[in-house]
Amino acid sequence: MWINKIKIKNFRNYNEQEIELEKNINIFYGENAQGKTNIIEAIFLSSMGKSFRAKKDKDMIKLNFENSEIEINYKKSDREGKIKIELGHKKNIFLNGIKIKKLSELLGNINIVIFTPDDINILKGGPQNRRRFLDIMISQLKPNYMYSINFYLKILEQRNNYLRQIRDERKDENFLDIWDEKLAQYAITIFQYRNEYINKIKEKIKKIHAEITNQKEEIKMEYFSECQTKENFLKLLKERRKLDIIKGYTTKGIHRDDFSIFIDEKPIDIFGSQGQHRTAILSLKLAELYLVKDEIEENPILLLDDFMSELDEKRIKSFLNKINDTQVIITCTEKIEVENKKVLIYNVKEGNLKKQ
Predict the structure, then answer these.
(1) Cβ(203)–Cβ(196) below 8 Å
(2) CA angle, corner 159, sides to 157 and 161, nearest 5?
(3) Are 173 and 245 in contact (CB under 8 A)?
């Protein structure tokens, strides 16, 4: 799978730009705040239907303009395709010229693995970062997963609203049974997806990390969830009901899931050095890349944003040497040398590209 052309109009700091890409490695370099990450964002948006950094679609529209367009041509082993996204008063998404009705129709057409400087927080930060990592990966492979997530969150919001009504307006708490049943139904579906893919990641990350560290470290991954069976989750909701009413929100559920990484049996978030965090996140991202490849039977597109900032030269070379037959799109402040691979290089300055 690879992208051969990107067109953007009134997107971030770009007026109108057409970008041709190489099938292998594409490097966009330049000083900070010139528009490099905006290219990564346009690709991510075309894959996932939303940005990895903007909270609102309007934030991606160029200042003083009302509309923006992104168009991406891509090729897969069995077909070619085109995705067009219009941002404005509302968002319109077109797949091969046909407007889609549901986001799930977009997911899985362009499969990506993204690596940004913020990804170090997958391991260092709170559990919401780790859940987001899982959500991005799984929803591309199983669009029904995102459907289940969205319904779960909708029901969760309704339950939380009713918890506050019980607390503040003395509503009948027995009606919570309705939301509990629905919440449990979607929670179990989400758990099953997460459990399946975490087990697949576990198999890959152990081998990858051993190779990267020359067999000096052993990595393990453990998934924590209280929604493994519908019966147990419903029982837990009952047990926590009084506390949930007092707090005004649901204190247990799939929205509290987490996973941990261990290096030589020690949790990395507590005992891991800076170097171990960087190596572990490389292992995790490579495991994701290989997993997606296994699932779709071709290589996903690898997006490496600000690639130099969190990794030293040794780790960068180790990472790139493990990637073959994969389209890679890299943003960085300086040119980087990539051995034995075909490379297309663009210099980015104030929203303008110059092919090197």
Answers:
(1) no
(2) 70
(3) yes
CB 167 within 8 Å of CB 246: yes
Average the pLDDT over 112-134 and give the result.
Answer: 92
**What is the C-alpha R_g of the chain?**
22
CA angle 290, 206, 289 (to 5 degrees): 15
Question: Which H or E run includes 276?
Answer: helix 274-296
Tell me the CB-side half-sphere exposure of residue 43, using CA atoms within 13 A.
Answer: 29
Cα separation of 84 and 116, whole Å? 24
Q: What is the pTM of this model?
A: 0.91
Residue with tokens 């990472």: 319
318: its two tokens:
């180790």
Find, among 287, 279, 338, the residue nearest to 310 by Cα: 279
135 to each of 35, 48, 198, 223, how far by Cα in Å?
27, 11, 11, 14
Tokens of residue 71, six digits: 């168009």
Q: How far is CA 231 from the centre of its chain?
A: 31
Return the amino acid letter for 319.
F
Q: Which pair of structure tokens corresponds to residue 208?
A: 């990858």
Instruction: Give, rounded to a whole angstrom, the gap between the first and last alpha carbons of the chain.
Output: 24
**The one-letter amino acid at 316:** I
CB 329 within 8 A of CB 40: yes
Q: What is the pLDDT of residues 215-237, one digit of tens each?
A: 999 999 999 999 999 999 999 99
- In the predicted model, is pLDDT for residue 30 greater than 70? yes
